[in-house]
Amino acid sequence: SFRTPFDFIMEKTSDNQTERTPLLLITAAIEQGGRTMASLLRKGPLLGITGSAQIRNVQGEGVQTLDQIGQETFLGLFRRSRAVLSVLSEEAEMPEVLPCDEKTSLLVAMDPLDGSSNISVNAPIGSIFSIFRPPAPSSSSPEGLFLNASSPLLSAYLLYSVSTSLVLAFSGETRVFTLDPDTGEFLGDGSPWRFPDKGKIYSTNEAYLPRWEKPLQDYLSWIKKERNPSMILRYIGALVGDFHRNLLKGGIYLYPAEAGEKTSGKLRLLYEACPMAHIARNAGGIATDGKQDILTIVPRSVHQRVPLIVGSVDLVREFQERTGHPLSGL
Ligand code: P6P
Questions:
Q1: What value of ipTM does the predicted structure carry?
Q2: Could you report the per-residue pLDDT of 182-238, keeping only the tens digit for each?
Q3: Residues in domain Fructose-1-6-bisphosphatase class I N-terminal (predicted)?
């Protein structure tokens, strides 16, 4: 019989009642926002809401109208849940402090709509969340809350594609759910998902190879010319889509640092690399910045970028060994 995210959280919080309620409320907010965004994205072109808005977001990137709708949709739901102390979003420079029931509220870092350049060409996009316990005492500044937070308590992404998936990592497990558009329920088979240890897929934007450091250039050329068995390239250009395919089939995703303006890569630690690393780890995969496990990185700023290599443990181990940073304890 199918199970829902509610069943997953209830099952895994049977001995920890204090966090059960905020986690159920936050997961419900993510589900509700997912239903809203999936419906809007399906009709977007008909409603004229896929054009890029004139306003530029804090990252200086062109903002698609749907980016703002995603920001307002999820922020509004987290505000109404009263279970969230503060939300850090890719779409806002400073974290937003929300009215909440102080004693059990949690922190949310989110990318409300990741890969929005795919919207206008009807390609997959996603929403990414990491949920943290606030540091004690939680009197520090909004940014300080996120810079002193522990590792994620729960991580999630929504993937808006052929179907709408919700993937949750919590309490040592990663589970996959699919939206039933007729009932609005997210349903899964109740079993934990395991990242395949091996795989033949690598996902990266090879156009930037000339700006990579030499060991990474050598790794890619080895993959293409010498590795046996050989690998294939699959790249959607949206982290959630590329990650999800590799989570299901086995594979490795790489967004390395580049000489020039991407000296720390492109992806953000708190609401892109960290949740993906947590989801990978709970499924038996691993994520690094090329040198260390993403989950051991202490953020220095809330929009900090990091290089991201994430996927099947055998493939990430092979990458680390070939680029001179073998991972200990793997
Ligand atoms: P590039 C989307 O803009 C994003 O943040 C990720 O979702 C995606 O994996 C990456 O950037 C794509 O970047 O430079 O290959 O277009």
A1: 0.98
A2: 999 999 999 999 999 999 999 999 999 999 999 999 999 999 999 999 999 999 999
A3: 7-187
Q: What's the CA gap between 17 and 39, in Å, rounded? A: 33
Structure-block tokens of residue 167 = 């993937």
Calpha distance 302→70 (Å, rounded): 20
List of residues 6+ apart from 165 with CB closer than 8 A: 158, 159, 176, 177, 178, 179, 244
- The conformation of residue 271, written as its DSSP 8-state character, comes to I
CB atoms within 10 A of CB 8: 23
- For ligand 1, pick from 63, 264, 266 the residue to mutate: most ligand atoms within 8 Å of CB: 266
Q: Residue type for 280, please? A: A
What is the chain's alpha carbon radius of gyration, rounded to the nearest angstrom?
A: 19
Residue 67 CB–ligand 1 contact under 6 Å:
no
End-to-end CA distance of the chain: give it in Å, rounded.
35
Supply angle C-alpha 45, 51, 52, rounded to 5: 150
Euclidean distance between CA atoms 295 and 149, whole angstroms:
12
